[in-house]
Amino acid sequence: MKNFYFILIFIVVFPTLCSAQENLSKDYSIEFKKAREVSTSFNLNSTTRTRDDRLAKIMVKCKVKALDKKPVDSNGFSLVDTVNKLRYRFVEYGGYLPITIFVPNERTNRVLKEEILKENGEEYKSIPDYDPDIYDSFEDYSISGYKNVEIPINFGNKRNPRKSVTYYTPTPFKKFTATMYFLVIMDQKKPNFELYYHDKKIDNFEIDFK
């Protein structure tokens, strides 16, 4: 697939879709709350933007409970386009507690899938760490007949790109809101979306894109 370029920045509100379907296993409970299109260029709650008009940005929120009281696999979420047979990795994720002054509200860290080094072999200090010891489960739950879409983030610029797909450390909270941002391809058939966690479908929805 073609490369897409991104730079980091900082939402405007578009029509919102809400639902309340809960999907349970012995390990976790996930309740789909809402999904909506958000701006690709200005977003107070997201640091990823794009100028590529072939892409749209979707925010998805879920309520998550870790029934086994273990950290939740952040990378287990994926957005599936059943029409175009695509399975998207999110470009940005956060696991948030309700606002509190005593406990950090968000404690997941972004990780580089591909190492990015300076010409002298040193690491950049201003970009996420590369740590292959942090497991990435996204490809473990690939769907037969669907193409995995992983759009890299450019931590440099168009002239001097520093690109890598990113993923996240596990979410340590027992009960939290998972907020995800997906960049989806628009120059194709109108999509129908299904949100998955691992191999379980959480809910389905459509977006009326602007």
Please describe the topology of this protein.
Elements: E1 6-8, E2 16-18, E3 22-24, E4 28-38, E5 48-50, E6 55-66, E7 77-81, E8 86-88, E9 92-96, E10 110-112, E11 129-130, E12 147-149, E13 153-154, E14 163-164, E15 166-168, E16 175-185, E17 193-197, E18 200-205
Parallel strand pairs: 8-12, 10-11
Antiparallel strand pairs: 1-5, 2-4, 3-4, 4-6, 6-16, 7-8, 7-17, 9-16, 10-15, 13-14, 17-18
Please describe what this structure looks like.
The chain has 210 residues and is mainly β. It has one domain. It is built from no helices and 18 strands. It has strands spanning 6-8, 16-18, 22-24, 28-38, 48-50, 55-66, 77-81, 86-88, 92-96, 110-112, 129-130, 147-149, 153-154, 163-164, 166-168, 175-185, 193-197, 200-205. The strands form five sheets. Strands 2, 3, 4, 6, 9 and 16 form a six-stranded antiparallel sheet that branches. Strands 12-8-7-17-18 form a five-stranded mixed sheet, with no helix packed on it. A three-stranded mixed sheet has the order 11-10-15, with no helix packed on it. The radius of gyration is 17 Å and the shape is globular. Residues 1-20 form the signal peptide. Keywords: Signal.
Work out the helicity level.
Answer: under 10%
Q: What gyration radius follows from the Cα positions, in whole Å?
A: 17 Å
Structural class: mainly beta
Strand % is 35-45%
Order of helices and strands: EEEEEEEEEEEEEEEEEE
Biggest pleated-sheet summary: 6 strands, antiparallel
What count of helical segments does DSSP give?
0
Number of domains: 1
Return the average pLDDT rounded to an integer: 86
The rounded distance between the terminal residues' Cα atoms is 24 Å
Task: Tell me the number of strands.
Answer: 18
The general outline is: globular
* Poorly predicted segments: 1-21
Keywords: Signal
Signal peptide: 1-20
